[in-house]
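Ticket #4471: structure output looks truncated?

Reporter: J.K.
Steps to reproduce: submitted the chain below (660 residues) through the standard prediction queue, then opened the result file.
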Amino acid sequence: MIVELGHYALILAAFTALVQAVVPLIGAHKRWHGWMAVAEPAAGLQFFLTAFSFAALTYAFVKSDFSVSLVVSNSHTLKPMIYKISGVWGNHEGSMLLWVLIITLFGACLAWFGGNLPPTMRARALAVQAAVGVAFFAFLILTSNPFTRMEVAPFNGTDLNPLLQDPGLAFHPPFLYLGYVGLSMAFSLAVAALIEGRVDAAWGRWVRPWTLAAWIFLTIGIALGSWWAYYELGWGGFWFWDPVENASFMPWLLAGALLHSAIVVEKREALKSWTILLAIMAFSFSLIGTFIVRSGVITSVHAFANDPERGAFILAITAIFTGGALTLFAARSSVLEAKGIFGTVSRESGLILNNILLAVSCFVVFVGTIWPLVSEMAFDRKLSVGPPFFNMAFTPFMLVLGIALPICAMLPWKRAKIGKAMRPLIPAFVLAVALAGLAWAIQTGNSLLGPIGVFLGAWMVFGAITDLFQRLGRGDFSARMKRFWRLPGADWGKAVAHSGIGITMLGIAGLTAWESEDIRVAYFNEPYMVGKYELTLEGVRDVQGPNYMSVMGDIRVRVDGEELTFLHPEKRFYPVAGMPTTEAAIDYRILRDLYIALGDEQPNGGYTVRTYIKPLTNWIWLGSALMALGGLFSLLDRRYRVAAGATGARKSSAKGVPAE
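Returned output as attached by the reporter:
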């Protein structure tokens, strides 16, 4: 009964979205306040109906209701509860229900907290958001119904993919979707602004918090996926340039560009056309990512579905919304005239450089991701584009971005002198060069990658700190310290986020340049050395898990004769799914990870053991966490919660609907 109610609620939510997409849009055009007012309760109702539908599906998974086809395919009675719940979105149909839930959540948040927008702008934005929702409700109900019943319910299910039965993957998709789908709000505000013919400083301030929230969630989601790949797949890598990884990375790059471009619109009323275009393209790349994951046209270990018909449906959605928005963008070009004037050397120019580097980087990733499909369709040639291409084509843009970012952040608005702006950064530069020299002196190889990475990371961190202290102004130390703690959240956010990028770059360079690997057959109670570590395989035992069987190794690690840790790598087998997994054992330290993966038993009685020493690996995720934290600091800045024009909007609402 609850499953049927969830299905009915989903259909009712789709009709509510249809009403919300049409009525407020007509009301805004005709200046009918009552029709515009429909948007707010409709957005709330749409969210609650979808939330009930999602809760009903979750109930079916928790209760192991095997009359539901989706539960049969993705659950089992022996599965731990956390994975029964995560199984709701660990498949195509359930993940699409989560997708539409988040669309309705962002629409409801705009209805509840968007009182600072003019009534016509809010009505139009909510209508556009609902239109996106209508498309995905139709896709879900017509092609991917999560509530399909079985004719004969089996006694048990076939279990969830064992690789997805992990805490990192339990939380990775929700955060990723909050970022993916959250960019729909920037898209809706951009289209609403084009319809209204209003793109000004106030709009730049309105769009930033929504984009910032989506970027934060996307950062967390990507970092969780990277961390999962690192410890779960048993390869010890954090990024493989897989098409599905790229599908989330491309919107992240464009969202970062949009955040910086919106600053120029807000401060200087310049780059209006470019900012609107970024808002459209950031969400469009989210739709392209959905197509890549669910169409089957590109092979990936992460892909949800291999159904060309579903892919065609998503491609049609992408074409309609992207094409429609770009057509409107071209038609409304007259309202996008820039007002601000700035010099070649200025904060505005620095932000333009930032945008160019991020946008071109995104284009490089897009070409590498989509080229195998183009090659097969156009030239009838099957080929793959792997990490070597991405590393060679993408890395130079990140190097330039790392060098330029601290300098550009110090430039004043309108016009600047590069020498004057660089002067405070001299100590940061000297420290960064000194650390790079130290790295060069102590490394055993001759690769420049490590020292260059240390320089870039240190340069960005010290540059961010310098920029933060420059904002304290002049005066004695005590007065500056008082101002230090009263700095706006956006200033703290910029410093922390930029430092996070630097730390991530440093971690990637350190891992890539200085990682060491050892693969051997280990015998019981026969110590062997890997670097400075003495490892001893003391035993291998069988362990029974809740829904798997495990062969677990016991490896003692010593340094200079003293015990450091005791690690337990595993090889698991899930009998229901019929799949094995490798569970690496990792000794996490601030400067390195000791990473051990257990292989197969050998005919002579030993076991294959792979051991990696991975320097600075944790700095990758520490930097990601700092980026998200910096975004949160900026999001909590009162200036972005109370957007420009709020007072005027409230006065206009009191007097009546303003003229367009």
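Triage note (M.O.): checked the attachment and the full token line is present. Residues 180 and 286 are 6 Å apart (CA to CA).
Status: closed, working as intended.
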